[in-house]
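Q: How would the structure tokens look for this protein?
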Amino acid sequence: MLRTLWCIEPIWAEQHLPLVQSFLSGQFPIQTNEDDETQTQDPIAGKTFAIAAQSGSNYAVQNRYALDDPELPDNSVYVLDMRGVVVKESNCCSIGTEEYARLIRQAYAHEKIIGCVGLVDSPGGQLSGTPTLYDVIRDPIKPFVVVVNEGLMASAAYWYSCGADYIYASQQTDQIGSIGVYIEFDDATEAREKMGIKRHTIYSDRSSQKNRPFRDAKEGKTELIREDLNQAADLFRAAVEQGRGKRLKVAKKGGPDVFEGGLFYAGKAIELGLIDGYGNLETAIAKVAELASKPKGEAVEELPDDHDETGDNTPEVVDLPDNDDSDEPTASVEPTTSQSNLISTTMSLFGNPHKVLSGLAGVEGSKITNEQLNAANAELDAEKITGVRVISTTYLEQAKQSIAALNQKNAEVETLTKERDDARAEAAKFGSQPGAQPTKSEKVEEKITTVEKDTYISQTDADLAAMKAQMQ
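A: Here is the predicted structure in token form.
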């Protein structure tokens, strides 16, 4: 509970905090009964099952099968009960994201399973493992549909759910969203000082940046820890934009922005494009069967443009099969089109080895960062794919413009060079005519005589030379 980051609705966390604190302090008794058969029961039992997707049947009363059941009918849909707090590792009470991912991969690989349905009621939970489950759900090998099972789809639960082809709410009171990241911690410094406890923390001279965001936050300087939170929030946003695509509605002036962390009731979530309508288990199974009947990689129609203020933006309401044993709604808002993430790509039955490359599908080029491009090229290098690189169309257009400008410059240089050569040729014609060369007047150089000054060894020699000069 303490060693990882969490993406969880704070109301749920606050309600369970006393239980967590009592457990950590040793005051919460853990009772076990080795004779109780439920203690050794497989936690997966009852949490997953398969139902035959036969049109016109009442799915609520159909038999439920395990994946390894030899009597499992053809064209079955695998249903996962994904309610509860999201955790990475399974325990005696719940299935972790690691186990969910494994089960979904097994279902994708099963020849009798045509797709999956997730029943979600969760406040969110552990960050670790959530992106992996999102990748598995979004894998286009087989369709995946999620139903908010009359409750909550918040934070980490929405993160992995938005990788599904469709998301339905079962009731108007369902709440969806809480897309955001925050951190909360207790500072017990003053309490320890009152108890006479003084803590000394010493860091190596070579570890000045270790735990710095946390240390600064305790001193009231939150810039570094906010920067770290912003990175996680950006990853969350990228997953939602990738998973929901064009169905997300752009925030209008003065209206709610889904990426600011708000939690919305089902009707508003439909309006904002967070989910696709109302439905129940029958609705989800029918949608899986519909998507599975389409050829793999079949092109899907583009989403229609938003209606103007005078247009009718009311979704179509369709009847659902009767279900006498359920209080679930009898109407569903039918989305206008299937999700465009049913892309044609090579995938492994054990997951997508090219998460970054396939993750860029459907993302607008202007929103792809240099880091994502570098990561995609790193995947190509890892697969020893040489001579191929992923680049932005913006860079490609800039390169084309640079090449065009260079070609124009070269053309200008060639034109000037030709003009120069033509001018020289024309000048050469005039140079061969009489008078072309100017008359030159040669200057006779005067001979300059340099008289060197005599050098005398002694003053006597100098005096004798002077007397000789006078006599001459």
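The chain has two domains: 6-28+41-345, 353-414.

Residues 86 and 125 are 4 Å apart (CA to CA).

Upvote if useful.
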